[in-house]
Amino acid sequence: MRILITGANRGLGLALSKVGAERGHQILAGVRDLKKSTEGLTQSEIYKSISLLPLDVTDEESVFAAANTVKENFGTIDVIINNAGVLLERDKQIEDLDLDQVKVTFDVNFFGPIRVVKHFLPLLLMGDRSSIINISSDAGSISQAYGGDYAYASSKTALNMFSQQLSQYVQSNNVHVFSIHPGWIKTDMGGESAPGNPFDTAKGIFDIIERKRVIDSRNVFITYEGHSMPL
Hints:
Shape: globular
Radius of gyration: 17 Å
CATH topology: Rossmann fold
Number of helices: 5
Order of helices and strands: EHEEHEHEHEHE
Largest sheet: 7 strands, parallel
CATH superfamily: NAD(P)-binding Rossmann-like Domain
Structural class: alpha/beta
Strand order of the largest sheet: 3-2-1-4-5-6-7
Protein backbone atom coordinates (compact mmCIF):
# COMPACT_ATOMS: atom_id res chain seq x y z
CA MET A 1 0.00 0.00 0.00
CA ARG A 2 1.01 3.60 -0.54
CA ILE A 3 0.67 5.47 2.75
CA LEU A 4 0.88 9.18 3.56
CA ILE A 5 2.09 10.00 7.07
CA THR A 6 2.22 13.55 8.42
CA GLY A 7 4.73 14.58 11.07
CA ALA A 8 6.84 11.65 9.94
CA ASN A 9 10.32 12.66 11.06
CA ARG A 10 10.09 12.00 14.81
CA GLY A 11 8.18 10.27 17.57
CA LEU A 12 5.22 8.14 16.55
CA GLY A 13 5.42 9.44 12.98
CA LEU A 14 8.97 8.13 12.62
CA ALA A 15 7.99 4.79 14.13
CA LEU A 16 5.02 4.53 11.75
CA SER A 17 7.24 5.30 8.78
CA LYS A 18 9.80 2.67 9.75
CA VAL A 19 7.27 -0.04 10.59
CA GLY A 20 5.38 0.63 7.37
CA ALA A 21 8.55 0.36 5.29
CA GLU A 22 9.57 -2.82 7.10
CA ARG A 23 6.19 -4.34 6.21
CA GLY A 24 6.72 -3.58 2.53
CA HIS A 25 4.55 -0.50 2.15
CA GLN A 26 5.51 2.60 0.19
CA ILE A 27 5.68 5.49 2.65
CA LEU A 28 5.18 9.13 1.72
CA ALA A 29 6.74 10.81 4.74
CA GLY A 30 5.28 14.28 5.19
CA VAL A 31 7.85 16.58 6.79
CA ARG A 32 7.45 20.29 7.44
CA ASP A 33 11.12 21.11 6.85
CA LEU A 34 13.27 18.74 4.80
CA LYS A 35 16.41 20.42 6.15
CA LYS A 36 15.72 19.28 9.70
CA SER A 37 15.91 15.86 11.33
CA THR A 38 15.09 13.57 8.41
CA GLU A 39 18.11 11.27 8.72
CA GLY A 40 16.07 8.74 10.69
CA LEU A 41 13.92 8.18 7.62
CA THR A 42 16.79 7.44 5.25
CA GLN A 43 19.53 5.89 7.37
CA SER A 44 19.06 2.28 6.29
CA GLU A 45 18.62 0.41 3.01
CA ILE A 46 15.44 -1.16 4.38
CA TYR A 47 13.84 2.27 4.35
CA LYS A 48 14.41 2.89 0.64
CA SER A 49 10.63 2.70 0.13
CA ILE A 50 10.26 5.94 2.13
CA SER A 51 9.86 9.08 0.02
CA LEU A 52 10.22 12.45 1.74
CA LEU A 53 7.42 14.92 1.01
CA PRO A 54 7.47 18.61 1.98
CA LEU A 55 4.22 19.08 3.90
CA ASP A 56 3.23 21.69 6.48
CA VAL A 57 -0.26 20.82 7.73
CA THR A 58 -0.84 24.41 8.91
CA ASP A 59 -0.33 25.82 5.41
CA GLU A 60 -3.05 24.96 2.90
CA GLU A 61 -0.86 25.92 -0.05
CA SER A 62 1.76 23.46 1.20
CA VAL A 63 -0.84 20.70 1.52
CA PHE A 64 -2.24 21.48 -1.93
CA ALA A 65 1.25 21.39 -3.45
CA ALA A 66 2.04 18.11 -1.70
CA ALA A 67 -1.15 16.52 -3.03
CA ASN A 68 -0.27 17.64 -6.55
CA THR A 69 3.24 16.22 -6.18
CA VAL A 70 1.84 12.87 -5.09
CA LYS A 71 -0.71 12.86 -7.90
CA GLU A 72 1.94 13.60 -10.52
CA ASN A 73 4.46 11.07 -9.22
CA PHE A 74 2.31 8.27 -7.83
CA GLY A 75 -1.28 8.80 -8.98
CA THR A 76 -3.06 7.41 -5.93
CA ILE A 77 -2.68 6.64 -2.24
CA ASP A 78 -4.27 3.97 -0.07
CA VAL A 79 -3.96 5.36 3.44
CA ILE A 80 -3.74 8.75 5.15
CA ILE A 81 -2.27 8.86 8.66
CA ASN A 82 -2.81 12.28 10.21
CA ASN A 83 -0.12 12.09 12.87
CA ALA A 84 1.28 15.64 13.13
CA GLY A 85 0.34 17.15 16.47
CA VAL A 86 1.34 19.51 19.27
CA LEU A 87 0.79 19.62 23.02
CA LEU A 88 0.88 23.21 24.26
CA GLU A 89 -0.21 25.00 27.45
CA ARG A 90 0.05 21.67 29.26
CA ASP A 91 0.09 22.93 32.82
CA LYS A 92 -2.04 26.05 32.38
CA GLN A 93 -5.37 26.54 34.08
CA ILE A 94 -8.13 28.38 32.24
CA GLU A 95 -7.31 31.75 33.82
CA ASP A 96 -3.75 31.62 32.48
CA LEU A 97 -4.26 30.17 29.01
CA ASP A 98 -2.53 31.89 26.11
CA LEU A 99 -5.30 31.85 23.51
CA ASP A 100 -2.81 32.28 20.70
CA GLN A 101 -1.29 28.94 21.74
CA VAL A 102 -4.76 27.42 21.84
CA LYS A 103 -5.25 28.58 18.25
CA VAL A 104 -1.92 27.05 17.25
CA THR A 105 -3.00 23.78 18.84
CA PHE A 106 -6.24 23.68 16.86
CA ASP A 107 -4.44 24.72 13.69
CA VAL A 108 -2.17 21.67 13.89
CA ASN A 109 -4.31 19.05 15.64
CA PHE A 110 -7.71 19.78 14.10
CA PHE A 111 -7.47 21.98 11.03
CA GLY A 112 -4.32 20.16 9.91
CA PRO A 113 -6.09 16.83 9.34
CA ILE A 114 -8.98 18.63 7.66
CA ARG A 115 -6.60 20.30 5.21
CA VAL A 116 -4.86 17.01 4.47
CA VAL A 117 -8.08 15.07 3.90
CA LYS A 118 -9.54 17.88 1.81
CA HIS A 119 -6.71 17.73 -0.71
CA PHE A 120 -5.68 14.05 -0.57
CA LEU A 121 -9.12 12.41 -0.42
CA PRO A 122 -9.58 12.39 -4.23
CA LEU A 123 -6.36 10.35 -4.53
CA LEU A 124 -7.46 7.97 -1.80
CA LEU A 125 -10.94 7.33 -3.20
CA MET A 126 -9.41 5.67 -6.25
CA GLY A 127 -8.63 2.62 -4.10
CA ASP A 128 -11.02 -0.07 -2.89
CA ARG A 129 -9.77 -0.84 0.66
CA SER A 130 -8.55 2.52 1.86
CA SER A 131 -8.18 3.94 5.36
CA ILE A 132 -7.90 7.31 7.07
CA ILE A 133 -6.21 7.21 10.46
CA ASN A 134 -6.39 10.27 12.70
CA ILE A 135 -4.07 10.08 15.71
CA SER A 136 -6.21 11.20 18.64
CA SER A 137 -5.94 10.71 22.40
CA ASP A 138 -7.93 9.53 25.37
CA ALA A 139 -7.83 13.21 26.33
CA GLY A 140 -10.42 13.74 23.60
CA SER A 141 -13.04 11.65 25.38
CA ILE A 142 -15.81 13.89 26.72
CA SER A 143 -17.10 11.21 29.10
CA GLN A 144 -13.64 10.78 30.64
CA ALA A 145 -12.67 14.46 30.93
CA TYR A 146 -10.14 15.00 33.72
CA GLY A 147 -10.03 18.80 34.01
CA GLY A 148 -6.98 20.16 32.25
CA ASP A 149 -5.07 20.18 28.95
CA TYR A 150 -7.74 22.52 27.64
CA ALA A 151 -6.19 23.18 24.25
CA TYR A 152 -4.97 19.67 23.51
CA ALA A 153 -8.00 17.80 24.83
CA SER A 154 -10.49 20.07 23.07
CA SER A 155 -8.61 19.76 19.78
CA LYS A 156 -8.72 15.97 20.03
CA THR A 157 -12.44 16.00 20.85
CA ALA A 158 -12.98 18.07 17.71
CA LEU A 159 -10.83 15.61 15.75
CA ASN A 160 -12.96 12.72 16.98
CA MET A 161 -16.12 14.42 15.71
CA PHE A 162 -14.43 15.15 12.38
CA SER A 163 -13.51 11.47 12.14
CA GLN A 164 -17.08 10.41 12.91
CA GLN A 165 -18.56 12.75 10.30
CA LEU A 166 -15.96 11.78 7.71
CA SER A 167 -16.64 8.10 8.31
CA GLN A 168 -20.29 8.63 7.38
CA TYR A 169 -19.28 10.48 4.23
CA VAL A 170 -16.88 7.86 2.83
CA GLN A 171 -18.46 4.62 4.06
CA SER A 172 -20.01 3.86 0.66
CA ASN A 173 -16.48 3.87 -0.81
CA ASN A 174 -15.31 1.13 1.60
CA VAL A 175 -13.00 3.61 3.32
CA HIS A 176 -12.40 2.95 7.00
CA VAL A 177 -11.93 6.01 9.22
CA PHE A 178 -10.53 5.65 12.71
CA SER A 179 -9.57 8.14 15.40
CA ILE A 180 -6.91 6.24 17.34
CA HIS A 181 -5.68 6.65 20.90
CA PRO A 182 -1.98 5.70 20.66
CA GLY A 183 -1.46 5.18 24.38
CA TRP A 184 0.98 7.05 26.58
CA ILE A 185 4.20 6.50 24.68
CA LYS A 186 7.80 7.57 25.09
CA THR A 187 8.22 10.43 22.60
CA ASP A 188 9.07 14.12 22.83
CA MET A 189 5.39 14.73 23.54
CA GLY A 190 4.81 11.81 25.88
CA GLY A 191 8.02 12.27 27.86
CA GLU A 192 10.63 9.86 29.18
CA SER A 193 8.40 8.54 31.96
CA ALA A 194 5.80 7.19 29.52
CA PRO A 195 5.49 3.39 29.73
CA GLY A 196 4.63 2.74 26.08
CA ASN A 197 6.88 2.17 23.08
CA PRO A 198 5.98 4.06 19.88
CA PHE A 199 6.98 1.05 17.78
CA ASP A 200 4.44 -1.16 19.57
CA THR A 201 1.79 1.46 18.84
CA ALA A 202 2.90 1.69 15.21
CA LYS A 203 2.66 -2.08 14.79
CA GLY A 204 -0.86 -2.05 16.22
CA ILE A 205 -1.93 0.73 13.89
CA PHE A 206 -0.58 -1.15 10.88
CA ASP A 207 -2.48 -4.26 11.97
CA ILE A 208 -5.62 -2.10 11.79
CA ILE A 209 -4.66 -0.64 8.40
CA GLU A 210 -3.89 -4.10 7.02
CA ARG A 211 -7.25 -5.28 8.40
CA LYS A 212 -5.67 -8.00 10.49
CA ARG A 213 -8.02 -7.05 13.30
CA VAL A 214 -11.78 -7.42 13.08
CA ILE A 215 -13.17 -4.01 14.05
CA ASP A 216 -16.73 -2.79 13.75
CA SER A 217 -16.27 0.18 11.42
CA ARG A 218 -19.00 2.00 13.37
CA ASN A 219 -16.52 2.25 16.25
CA VAL A 220 -14.55 5.21 14.97
CA PHE A 221 -12.75 6.09 18.25
CA ILE A 222 -10.50 3.15 19.17
CA THR A 223 -7.18 2.24 20.76
CA TYR A 224 -4.17 1.19 18.70
CA GLU A 225 -5.10 -2.39 19.63
CA GLY A 226 -8.54 -1.97 18.06
CA HIS A 227 -10.60 -1.65 21.24
CA SER A 228 -13.50 0.79 21.36
CA MET A 229 -12.96 4.08 23.23
CA PRO A 230 -15.74 6.08 24.95
CA LEU A 231 -16.57 9.33 23.21
